[in-house]
Amino acid sequence: MTTVTIFGFPQSTYVRTVRMTCEEKGVPYVLEPVEWGAPSHRARHPFLRIPAFQHDGFTLYESLAIARYVDRAFAGPPLQPQEPKEAGRMDQWISAIGDYFYQTMIRELVFPRLVAPSRGQAPDEAVIAKAVPKAEGLLAATDATLAEDAYLAGPMVTLADLYLVPILFWLSKTPEGAPLLDAAPAVSRWYAAMEQRPSFAATLPPAP
Ligand SMILES: N[C@@H](CCC(=O)N[C@@H](CS)C(=O)NCC(=O)O)C(=O)O
């Protein structure tokens, strides 16, 4: 029996992307917390991030490398299109989500609004105020794509969708993000469909 371990915390959007990938592929896994900054963490991830990953003694870090590996190494529905244009669109969205969506929605909105108070810190309202119109612009572009196609890269669920959904989950928990999502009809339709997938329910994170 092969053993897959994902190292990280369930609140992390990148960890959730990898967990959803395993769930979609039907790959059983163990989620193991990391001791942040400890030698064991550095040994698994030299840049001290999460997730890290192990499969039968083979180790990887960086969520995209892990998700692609899981998709290639295991049977189950493919999560990367073969068709070059759809594959290009998937890559485009994964890159944009990692570079723009995560920064604006998680670092500049969810962290100050939800994570800081959970640590007894006051939210930085100036950072949040600047992030809201940026998030609105990101959702408008996403809405235009999802008005044309069922999923980000076309007709099939791909890794790109599994990158976006954990971010929008946390965004929807903020008082600023929820109305922005409601105002994007195609994104809302897509999110409702993604919410129905067993991989979504199986990876619901606890509060920050
Ligand atoms: N490019 C990395 C990003 C991983 C990442 O930033 N993970 C966050 C948690 S969602 C983290 O480890 N943050 C800790 C930090 O920034 O020090 C990946 O895709 O795995």
Structure description:
With 208 residues, the protein is of the alpha+beta class. The chain folds into two domains: 70 residues, 3-Layer(aba) Sandwich (Glutaredoxin), CATH 3.40.30.10; 118 residues, Glutathione S-transferase Yfyf (Class Pi), Chain A, domain 2. 60% of the residues lie in helices and 7% in strands. It is built from nine helices and four strands. Strands 2-1-3-4 form a four-stranded mixed beta sheet, covered by helices on one side. β1, α1 and β2 form a beta-alpha-beta unit. α1 crosses α6, α4 runs parallel beside α6 and α5 crosses α8. The mean pLDDT is 97. The structure holds glutathione. The site of glutathione has 9 residues, from α1 and α3. Glutathione (GSH) binds next to α1 and α3.
Chain-averaged pLDDT = 97
- CATH fold call of the largest domain: Glutathione S-transferase Yfyf (Class Pi), Chain A, domain 2
For the record, give the distance between the C-alpha atoms at the N and C termini, rounded to a whole number. Answer: 33 Å
Provide the structure class. alpha+beta
Unreliable segments of 5+ consecutive residues: none
For the record, what CATH class of the largest domain applies? Answer: Mainly Alpha
What is the share of helical residues? 55-70%
Bound compounds, each kind once, are:
glutathione
- Count of beta strands: 4
